[in-house]
Amino acid sequence: MTPITEAPVLEGRWVRLEPLSQKHLPALEKVAFGEKIWRYMLTTVQNRQQLESWLESALQERANRQIPWVTVLKEENRIVGSTRFIDLDPHHRTVEIGHTWISPQAHGSRVNPEAKLLQLRFAFEDLGLNRVAFKTHHENLQSQAAIRKLGAVYEGTDGSLRHSVWFSITREDWPQVRSRLEERLQATQPSV
Fold this sequence. Notes:
- By secondary structure, the chain is an alpha+beta fold.
- It has a single domain (10-187), classed as Gcn5-related N-acetyltransferase (GNAT) (Aminopeptidase, 3-Layer(aba) Sandwich).
- The chain has helices spanning 25-29, 35-38, 48-60, 111-126, 141-150, 174-187; strands at residues 10-11, 15-19, 67-73, 78-89, 94-102, 131-137, 153-158, 164-170.
- Helix 4 runs antiparallel to helix 6 (174-187).
- The radius of gyration is 16 Å and the shape is globular.
C-alpha cells in the first residue's frame, strides 16, 4: 500500500472531496445544522460550538488512521457535507468509509454516489486496498438502502447499545461496482 503523507483532493465531474481543515468552518455552518443530518450519528451538531468541536475532533483523528474530507458541489463551489476514511489499516489493506453526512437538499442527487466513487477509486486503485467497509445504525434504513445501491454486500448486524449494520466491497467486487456507479451517475438527476 502506498503510504499517505497528506490527504489528497479527490475530484470527479460534479463533486470534489477536499481534505477537511479549519478554513471550512464558515461554509460548514451553512449546511451542518439539522436534526435529520445527525439523527443516527454518535455526535450531535446543532450550533457553532458543537460544529467546532466536531471539526476539531475530526482533525485530531487524522493521526488515528482517519482521512476527513468536505464534500464540495463543484458547479457552485459549495460545501454540502463531509465524509471520512476510518481505521485505514495498511497491514490488512482495509478501510471503512463513514461519518458521512450530506445536506438534505443534496439527497437523491449525484453528490453521494460520486463521492463514494471517488473514495472507492482512491481505496482500490491508488492505495491498493482489499476491502472497504460501511457501517450504519440499524434504524437508518435510508443509509442502508444507499449503501446497498452502491453495490456493497451485507455482512451482518452487531452491537448492544447501538446495533450496527455492516456492508463491504472487496477488490474482486470493485470492477462491477465501479461500472454500476458510473452508469448510475450518468442517469442520475443533476446535483442540487
